[in-house]
Write a structure and sequence with these properties.
The complex is a heterodimer of chains A (78) and B (417). By secondary structure, chain A is an all-alpha fold. Chain A is 56% helix and 0% strand. Chain B folds into two domains: 7-251, Peroxisomal Thiolase, Chain A, domain 1 (3-Layer(aba) Sandwich); 264-405, Peroxisomal Thiolase, Chain A, domain 1 (3-Layer(aba) Sandwich), CATH 3.40.47. Classes of the chains: A mainly alpha (78), B alpha/beta (417).
Chain lengths: 78, 417
């Protein structure tokens, strides 16, 4: 697992209160990890803070699973 | 149409004197002070560096962390107090008509810490508008009633009352009215506050409202003492389960007392100072007793607003003497704020609880920290100084007055079957 993936996992565990084992690449924030729309907005903000980047709203809308978040961050975090 | 009767069937309290009703009441009767140096933030540069905080509070003992972090502390306090009250009331929730169950809560400010944290974060972040999505739902004052409504599935009237330090008394009056009208059968009422923050202490310091007796926090709240120098900020709250009498009887509920009246008035005078003649205080007691349909001579105990401020305390006392006449010298008066500090919007709720427990146990909790008589206060009054007093308590009155000149009082009586 990449360093980015590990940090993403820790944020999700912390914010959504789920077990590490549940945070698989396919897991959907809303369908599998119990997040509602506000939790999802907060998660995106946490990613922005953790990785010191800005994720535009139209990009954020496409981040619905753990794997999508990791892929976006791996591509955009310098 | 005739009004229904309203009784108290459950109580919960999270206070500077204890985290549940039994501990709160034991310490209140024993005359324990809840004041200590501030731990919630670094108060070193503040004129007042002490408060009555809820002590040894580990939120994990009450609310899962993921839920708790979506609540401001004033809502967390509401949940803890309401959980205790609901358990105490012993409802079979399956049998409750949830459409006729409500939540009417009081808070003077709402989510002050949330507001402060978010705005400070904004200011520290080069003013980039990065606000947490939970900022608004955590901060708005009605969030406590919303969270409680969702928690218990209560679908009747749910809202918050805001009238500064009278807030939770207004909540109790509204709950009482909707139950006696038949709109609700059951209501979680009360109030909570969590204002021991930078902005809370700094703001009240700017008003010169707080005691600055930093060398002796535990004796700083001294209502009616000649050397009182301001109120001591408190935090926490209390929940009362108000229930329609026949509804309570039908399910064999334990009944603490009957709520028999509520009164309101306004000073129409000044945004922070009470009217020096105590005319608002006079009218609110008159209105409460008229609503209850009792005479002044029927009152055994008054839990006063008595915040320990130089100008606030005498005006209430003058109003009591004027309204009660000779009976003012027969009844017991005390300010439990001498022990709990001032819970602002939560004050009316914990003081209503104190009145109800005084009726249950036939004992008056004291006004502690009396050292020097104030020549402005008539020594014939029994202000229950320093030690609790046993006496027959059939009727108790609780007064609360808020900034803005809002006054609200409630009356409880021992249940006559």
């Amino acid at each position: 697992m990449s360093e980015i993936a590990e940090r993403v996992k820790q944020i999700i565990v912390e914010k959504l209160g789920v077990e590490e084992s549940e945070v698989t690449p396919e897991a959907s924030f809303t369908n599998d990890l119990g997040a509602d729309s506000l939790d999802t907005v907060e998660l995106i903000m946490e990613f922005e803070k953790e990785f010191n980047i800005s994720i535009p709203d139209d990009q954020a809308e496409n981040i619905g699973t753990v794997g999508q978040a990791v892929a976006y961050l791996e591509e955009n975090v310098k | 149409m005739s009004f229904k009767r309203v009784v108290v069937t459950g109580m919960g309290a999270l206070t500077p004197l204890g985290k549940d009703v039994p501990t709160f009441w034991k310490n209140l009767v024993a005359g324990v002070s809840g004041a200590a140096p501030i731990t919630r933030f670094d108060a070193e540069k503040f004129r007042t560096r002490f408060a009555c905080e809820v002590k040894d509070l580990d939120m994990n003992d009450y609310i899962p962390r993921q839920e708790a972090r979506k609540m401001d502390p004033f809502t967390q306090y509401a949940v803890i107090a309401a959980d205790e009250a609901m358990k105490d009331a012993g409802f079979d929730v399956e049998k409750l008509d949830l459409d006729k169950a409500g939540v009417i809560w009081g808070s003077g400010i709402g989510g002050l810490k949330t507001f402060e944290d978010e705005v400070m974060n904004f200011a520290d972040g080069a003013k980039n508008p990065r606000f947490n999505p939970f900022f608004i739902p955590k901060m708005i004052a009605d969030s406590a009633s919303g969270v409680l409504s969702i928690r218990y599935g209560f679908r009747g009237p749910t809202f918050i009352t805001v009238s500064a330090c009278a807030s939770s008394t207004n909540a109790l009056i509204d709950a009482y009215n909707y139950i006696r009208l038949g709109t609700m059968n059951v209501c979680i009422s009360g109030g909570s506050e969590a204002a021991v923050t930078n902005a809370g202490v700094g703001g009240f310091n700017a008003l010169k409202a707080l005691s600055e007796r930093n060398d002796s926090p535990e004796t700083a709240s001294r209502p009616y003492d000649k050397d009182r120098d301001g109120f001591v900020l408190g935090e926490g709250g209390a929940a009362l389960i108000l229930e329609e009498y026949e509804h309570a009887k039908a399910r064999g509920a334990k009944i603490y007392a009957e709520m028999i009246g509520g009164g309101m008035s306004s000073d129409a005078f000044h945004i922070t100072a009470p009217h020096p003649d105590g005319r608002g205080a006079y009218m609110v007691m008159k209105n409460a007793l008229e609503d209850a349909g009792i005479r002044p001579e029927d009152v055994d105990y008054i839990n006063t607003h008595g915040t320990s401020t130089p100008i606030g305390d005498p005006q209430e006392i003058k109003a009591i003497e004027r309204f009660f006449g000779e009976h003012a010298y027969q009844l017991n008066i005390s300010s439990t704020k001498s022990m709990t500090g001032h819970l602002l919007g939560g004050a009316g709720a914990i003081e209503a609880a104190a009145c109800i427990l005084a009726i249950r146990d036939q004992v008056i909790p004291p006004t502690i920290n009396h050292f020097t008589d104030d020549p402005e206060i008539d020594p014939r009054l029994n202000l229950t100084f320093n030690k609790a007093q046993q006496r027959s308590v059939n009727v108790a009155l609780s007064n609360t007055f808020g900034f803005g000149g809002h006054n609200a009082s409630v009356v409880f009586r021992k249940l006559e079957a």
